[in-house]
Amino acid sequence: MSDAALTTELSDEGLARDDYALQRVPQSARYGWVTVAIQRFGMLSALSQFLLGATLGMGMTFWDAVLAITLGAVILEVVAIAIGIAGMREGLSTTVLARWAGFGRYGAGIVGMVIAICLLGWFGVQSAVLAQGLASLLGGPPVWMWSIMAGLAVTAIVVHGFAGMAWTAWITVPAFLALAGWAITVELSKQSLGALVASAPPGPALSLAEGATIVAGGFIVGAVISPDMCRWNRSAADVVKQTVLGITLGEYVVALVGVLLAHALRTGDVIAIVTTTSGVVGTIVLITATLKINDWNLYAASLGMTNTLHTAFGKRTNRAVVTVALGVIGTGLAAAGILDHLIDFFVLLGVAIPPVAGIMVAEYYVVRRWRAALDVSRASGTLPGTAPGWAPAALVIWLASALIGKYVAWGIPALNALVVAFAAYAIAGRLGLTGAPRDENARVA
Prior knowledge:
Elements: H1 4-11, H2 13-18, H3 33-44, H4 47-59, H5 62-90, H6 94-97, H7 104-138, H8 143-159, H9 161-188, H10 193-198, H11 208-224, H12 226-230, H13 236-265, H14 271-276, H15 279-313, H16 319-336, H17 343-351, H18 354-367, H19 371-378, E1 386-387, H20 392-407, H21 413-430, E2 442-443
Helix pairs in contact: 1-9, 3-9, 3-13, 3-15, 4-13, 5-11, 5-13, 5-18, 7-8, 7-15, 7-16, 7-17, 8-15, 8-16, 9-15, 15-16, 18-20, 18-21, 20-21
Keywords: Membrane, Transmembrane, Transmembrane helix
Main location: membrane
GO molecular function: cytosine transmembrane transporter activity
């Protein structure tokens, strides 16, 4: 890899560790689209995608699963590209951009808190899953000790910011694909590919809407936080290329293999096949598959919390310090086994995240109430001198849309919430209901 920006970032330790958490990423610090794309693909080339594919395979024919994946992937790509281009253009993380994209300063702080809690929870859960797998494959220390080692290892990577995560991606993604691919090839070679494609699903039937819901819902949070990743892109074309390539490959390659494995093994427990074909290979597959998605869980959580601390207390906290604190908390909860009891809570919290994208996209591209301030300050590479304070309309729409996503069973819940939020905010903007209140000129500390 010859990306000069990556070397520059690693050599500037202080800058790399803060990662422009509360400011714009300058063009000089950005990366070629391939470096960003492998991160996006790395988030999707995980064991969870095999499980997603296996779930589809248990209830759908191969070609119906292809259709469900196509529909779900298109939804994800549209959302990720729309909000990702805004993040690239402004060079801002999701939660900082949200200040001028519908939510206002304090609303963006609440958004940051929700994202941080949700993703920190999943960071802990993933650390615990990795620990259980390592204990099963290698034995040795108890699971809680493996949890601590797994959590702290990811924390050490994320402390170094995007640059350290990029190096990790270049190592883990090819290793995961090669070793998991070998294990899968061994299993699938035992049966005719044509017969697997034509075979009936072994489990209860899934409808197309249900299948697309599984696909879109499985990565919708990753799509919403696209600005955290796309702020490192150099152009809108780069955002489109890395998003389409990363999501398409992740969904079609990894998920469709999961579909075939479910048809071949007549079971949804395909992860065991991928990880236990060989002790050494299984261990490496498990580690590489978990690292790449879990570092982004912690990274996005640290950006969200850094913004929340800034909006709540006017305090600029170094992102690396926040990362260490969150990493220790998440690791400790994972080792204690507490997070296993909170998965339903994290799923519920995840319902609140899709409307965030709908509101931000509607404000940035349609209503444009605060767009001028961003446009003027972008030329100098700074943030606008003022930020709206509270934005009640966005908060009301956010809550209402999340409830619709939770309780309306028709269609795709995550998409319902997102579309309702977009439409409601656009209408509110046309009616003049999204303007900032009295504290519009609240200073940006």
